[in-house]
């Protein structure tokens, strides 16, 4: 039997076990095996200056039939490895050709969000599930998100600058990214993206949020179960505001800059424990890098008892450091 008579599924199954060097050689053998090898060779593309393979961007820009094989694309270029503007024009063409992407990571110069402009004007990315970029949230990003109806995970504006904080807020259609579940980025962008969408997990970078910002996050169409944020507000009032607006949290991480250099008192521990107990679904809590101990109540496993005193020095090695009954307050 000739090679070209074999089922394509069989050829794919054999080729997927080959190393990349063998796939590259296989692609040069004949017209039958070339697309088989390319489909696997270009399925997941990772390019960076330090791996010295940025030339793959030129290939994807010039060969649309190859770019359509790409499912996951990752590129990282730091400030110590500058590239010419012509390279970013090629990157824009490559993105335009990769219409079948499921994952896209663009960790490049934050000022070149225009690489998405042509793509967002001409094609859709119906299969894209995850998108991470180093860009501020601007008009180019907003228009690109209009083209990603299946997106589940988004990271944008993670390192807001003074320019991005003061720039006008772009318009994002209410029908954009209707399935979004996870957001990572600035609080300013979160206030635009989270309301009206099924966002369950939120991680906020930069200056974080105040008590007044919490009601906007609570406008997610589903309960928020994961939250990580920085705040300038005092921890206890901030936790009380969270309790009132997002009571279904399962994991909570808060970095408070209030009294950051002052050791917490026993009274503070008890106040925090009182608030945490009112989060009926909370399983894990961190405050300014401190993990707050907890254990399930013996008579009701659906509720937790939270650490209400500073940990004491152990007198016996076998003592339970986190779950000793003397450091918990029960409700």
TrEMBL record:
Domain F-box: 1-53
InterPro entries from the UniProt entry: F-box-like_dom_sf (IPR036047), F-box_dom (IPR001810)
Species whose genome carries this gene: Rhizopogon vinicolor AM-OR11-026
Alphabetical list of PROSITE patterns matching this protein: FBOX
Protein name: F-box domain-containing protein
């Amino acid at each position: 039997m000739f090679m070209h008579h074999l089922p394509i599924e069989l050829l794919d199954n054999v080729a997927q076990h080959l190393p990349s060097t063998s796939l590259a050689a296989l692609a040069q053998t004949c017209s039958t095996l070339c697309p088989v090898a390319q489909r696997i060779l270009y399925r997941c593309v990772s390019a960076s200056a330090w791996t010295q393979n940025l030339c793959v961007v030129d290939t994807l820009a010039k060969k649309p039939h190859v770019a359509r094989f790409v499912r996951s694309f990752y590129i990282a270029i730091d400030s110590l490895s500058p590239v010419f503007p012509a390279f970013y024009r090629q990157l824009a063409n490559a993105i335009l050709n990769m219409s079948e992407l499921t994952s896209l990571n663009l960790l490049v110069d934050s000022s070149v969000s225009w690489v998405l402009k042509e793509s967002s004007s001409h094609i859709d990315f119906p299969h894209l599930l995850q998108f991470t970029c180093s860009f501020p949230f601007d008009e180019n990003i907003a228009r690109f998100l209009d083209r990603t109806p299946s997106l589940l995970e988004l990271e944008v504006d993670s390192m807001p600058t003074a320019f991005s904080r003061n720039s006008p807020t772009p318009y994002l259609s209410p029908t954009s990214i209707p399935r979004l579940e996870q957001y990572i980025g600035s609080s300013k962008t979160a206030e635009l993206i989270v309301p009206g969408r099924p966002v369950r997990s939120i991680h906020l970078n930069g200056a974080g949020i105040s008590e007044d910002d919490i009601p906007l996050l609570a406008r997610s169409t589903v309960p928020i179960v994961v939250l990580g944020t920085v705040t300038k507000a005092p921890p206890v009032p901030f936790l009380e505001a969270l309790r009132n607006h997002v009571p279904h949290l399962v994991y909570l991480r808060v970095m408070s800059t209030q009294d950051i250099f002052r050791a917490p008192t026993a009274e503070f521990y008890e106040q925090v424990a009182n608030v945490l107990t009112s989060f009926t679904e909370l399983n894990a809590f961190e405050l300014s890098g401190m993990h707050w101990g907890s254990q399930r109540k013996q008579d009701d496993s659906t509720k937790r008892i939270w650490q209400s005193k500073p940990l004491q020095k152990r007198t016996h090695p076998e003592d339970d450091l986190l779950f000793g009954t003397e450091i918990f307050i029960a409700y």
